[in-house]
Amino acid sequence: MATYVPNATQTTEPLESQTVESAALEFRTLKARVNALDAAVAADDLTDLRVPETSIAVLPAIASRAGKVLGFDAGGNPAMVDVAGATDPSLRSDLAASSGANLVRYLPAGTGAVATDVQTKFRQTVSVFDFMTPAQIADVQANTALLNVTAAIQSALTAANKVYFPAGTYLCDTVSVKANQFIHGDGKSSIIKQNSTTGASYGTFYADSGSASAFLTGITIRDIQLLGQVATLGFSEFQHLIGLNGVDGVLIDNVWVTGFRGDGIYLGSSPSAGVERHNRNVVITNCVIDGVNNDNRNGISIIDGDGILIEHNVFKNCTRSNMPGAIDVEPNGDLFPIVRNINIVNNTFTNIGGSAGIISFAIGANTFTVPPENYSVVGNTFVGATRPMMVLVPQAVDRGVPLNLVIANNTYSGAGRPFEFARSSLGYVDGVTITGNTFTYGAAAVLAFTNTATCINTVIANNVFRSASGGLALNGNASFITVSNNVFVGNPAINFGVGGGVTSNIAFQNNMINGAGTITSTGTDAGSTNSFLNNTLTNATTVSFRAWRNDFNGTVVQGVAPTTFNTTTLPDSFPTGVFTAILNGDTGVPAGIGSTQGVLTTYRLAGTSGYERFTYQTFVHSNNTLKLGSTFIRRRANASNTWTVWYELAGV
Q1: Do the strands 205-208 and 242-245 form a parallel or antiparallel pair, or are they unpaired?
Q2: Quick one: which of 190, 193, 516, 549 is 20 to 30 A from 480 by CA?
Q3: Is the pLDDT assigned to residue 556 strictly greater than 50?
């Protein structure tokens, strides 16, 4: 074993002798500890700030460090900072304030997004619960509606554009809706129950632009129910659920309009008489408009509207017996209302009462500043009807602008009339197209209801009329009426001028009549401008239709030959065209043929006054033996309105 010997020059006490092995072991242990310490320091370097030892100043005193965090001042020396912030010691209290959210910035995702603050962002939409007491919220959620929450709802509508109604029942008086208001809820379970309204024609939701030239734009009401109390409080004509006056760009979508006492939806000029407002570009869609007990005014009233679309709605149980109907377009007695560009499309009507039509256009006698025009009733379904599908009360006189009313692709079934035009004695109907409809009904459709009303420029084509007791009637004056390609089934009575009106230019062509009905024209017109061509009739159909231009010899199976021209009618009495008459006992036929029965056909060419001579007649007699096969012809004389003699075209 080796022994450690101190240096000979050492003057202190020698160390205790050690073995080499134990010294080496102690050294290795020390080295391992040093290495471990170095590794720990290296790891801390990743997260710690390292500065030269000479740049570290003394930390502030203990008292100044309490409740603060370590920071650095402008000189880089340690400094204690309030936890609320380095530059605003009051930030914590500011953030805790009711306006604190406006200190926090918000940037939406997406290119072009504009930064705002959190408070502004959150206030873009509010819940009405944000403005209610706990007791009011509990009342709403329990659907008891014992507490009036009008003030809270109005506060919400005033505070934000977008207002949300959570499910529940809200007892509410009139609240005002502003421009760009977006009102929505949880569908049918968010119920605004009408308590009372500010006044007549205001509505629970009410909007008024304030002047004739101003508009409240961008209003949306959707996914909510407005509930009137007609079942308990009864009828009140001017207690509406929604009243809009002076609006533009409105959407009412997926709204339940229920139990209204007056109108469900009212598009007005103003609650005050004679005050001018205008409504335009209003869409009412996917709504259920339910009067509950037929003790209301109208589902929708349009006093003023330009560009109105009523589409995909359900109307049911509307209107008491002395009010108009489900939809009533009826301007008040002023000249300023605008009622045009109104489209009623793909709706369903069930159990509708009233005194007029399910849909009424009661334009009236006023001479409006802007003429009414452009209406369509298309693709609707009318079930179990007792009233006419549509009633039109037009203007009294010709304004020079046709209505341009289109009634197309509707299905109507019930005991009422399909349509009824010109109820007033001076009604003037101009420009109607009725096409592609299926009518199953109990009373005749009427074009001019009174004998002094007028209907012109009307086309009735490609419809199916099914009726056991009525067909189509025109009681008053009529001109340029086309009835073509229709099917009349049952017991169709088709009458023109039945009330004694003046009729002309009536074209009854290519129709099919299947039933024991009648076709007559009894107006004061002689039939010179009428036509009756290519119709298919059954043996039971009786025809007495005055039309010089006709093919009775091919289409009339039985009945009276309804013509008022014969061999004595002068050439210039005929309009342009081909005219056929069946004669019996006319002594003006060619002599010596043994018969006064036959077919008289008149041909008049179009042209100027120099071509009247190209008016001529042919006569084919019905004698089976004498002059068999011969046809007789004559023409207008060259210089006078008279006929030449008959010339025979001898047969073989």
Answers
A1: parallel
A2: 516
A3: no
